[in-house]
């Protein structure tokens, strides 16, 4: 990775080295002090934007390529998505990040721990029975070593997913400006909205792009959601109702990127047709503004 001065166009840091495979996504923390990167090496890394040095250990949890990262507007959460297909939420605290346990993950963890406790109790009963047999038979041969009991800690480390719902690679993620929604896009042809506080789906999945939904972004005002995908279309959605507002059809090939101007009046899109297009953002009724 390289850092550049947008005013001069000059590189301001040596290349940031650490990932062992291609880097596919990156995002700055809202305060600007951290840079998060997503890589095919299945990790997310945090970097000090001022020095270019890594912050903490790589965030490991994904079991396949990581495609994108996005910070919550207030900076306390980082979302990462990839080919697993999992949506991970990481809690950012100072210079460290730890996996944030969503309600679903906590319920799964409780079930796992209950299973472990049941296995542990069964093994203890087996051990006690074997010990009783030894006491009754002084000349009996040596018994095999007792089985090693699984520990809750090992089960916790084996938990690999947080937000579960997509059935194919997850390509993009974006937080609502208000922070109460997280949107994700996937090759399963759906766009999902999540409540990041509890890790649950909000409403029904949107199915806007045959062939796969690639990227997503919220309007700065929070009332519109833009999605792009393999069908060459740019679709705008009403965030409150989940209903389509309009479809923009200017590209002639796959559309991979979409971004709103900070003022909210224009929308930029990037495509395999080798063009970047700027278009006015329509109002809620789909009329040009």
TrEMBL record:
Signal peptide boundaries: none
Entry keyword annotation includes Coiled coil: yes
Gene3D superfamilies associated with the record: YVTN repeat-like/Quinoprotein amine dehydrogenase
InterPro entries, sorted: WD40/YVTN_repeat-like_dom_sf, WD40_PAC1, WD40_repeat_CS, WD40_repeat_dom_sf, WD40_rpt
Region (Disordered): 133-154
Matches recorded under SMART domains: WD40
Coiled coil region boundaries: 106-133
Protein name stated in the entry: Uncharacterized protein
CDD domains for this protein: WD40
Organism: Acrocarpospora macrocephala
Superkingdom of source: Bacteria
WD repeat ranges, renumbered to this chain: 16-57, 59-100, 163-195, 206-247, 248-278
One Pfam family, short name: WD40
């Amino acid at each position: 990775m390289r850092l550049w001065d947008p005013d001069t166009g000059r590189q301001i840091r040596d290349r940031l080295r650490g990932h062992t495979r291609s880097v596919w996504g990156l995002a700055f923390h809202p305060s600007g002090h951290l840079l998060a990167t997503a890589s095919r090496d299945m990790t997310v890394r945090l970097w000090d934007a001022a020095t270019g040095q890594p912050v903490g250990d790589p965030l490991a949890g994904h079991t396949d390529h990581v495609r994108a990262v996005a910070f919550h507007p207030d900076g306390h959460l980082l979302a990462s998505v990839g080919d697993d297909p999992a949506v991970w939420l990481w809690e950012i605290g100072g210079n460290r990040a730890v996996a944030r346990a969503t309600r679903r993950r906590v319920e799964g963890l409780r079930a796992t721990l209950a299973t472990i406790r049941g296995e542990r109790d069964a093994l203890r009963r087996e051990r006690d029975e074997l010990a009783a047999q030894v006491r009754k038979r002084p000349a009996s041969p040596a018994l095999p070593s007792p089985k090693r009991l699984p520990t809750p800690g090992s089960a916790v480390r084996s938990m690999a997913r947080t937000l579960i719902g997509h059935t194919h690679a997850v390509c993009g993620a974006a937080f609502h400006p208000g922070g109460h929604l997280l949107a994700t896009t996937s090759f399963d042809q759906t766009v999902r909205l999540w409540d990041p506080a509890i890790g649950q789906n909000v409403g029904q999945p949107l199915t806007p792009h045959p062939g796969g939904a690639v990227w997503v972004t919220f309007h700065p005002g929070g009332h519109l959601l833009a999605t792009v995908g393999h069908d060459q279309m740019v679709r705008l959605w009403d965030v409150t109702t989940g209903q389509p507002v309009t479809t923009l059809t200017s590209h002639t090939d796959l559309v991979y990127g979409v971004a709103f101007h900070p003022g909210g009046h224009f929308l930029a899109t990037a495509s395999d047709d080798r063009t970047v297009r700027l278009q006015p953002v329509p109002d809620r009724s789909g009329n040009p503004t």
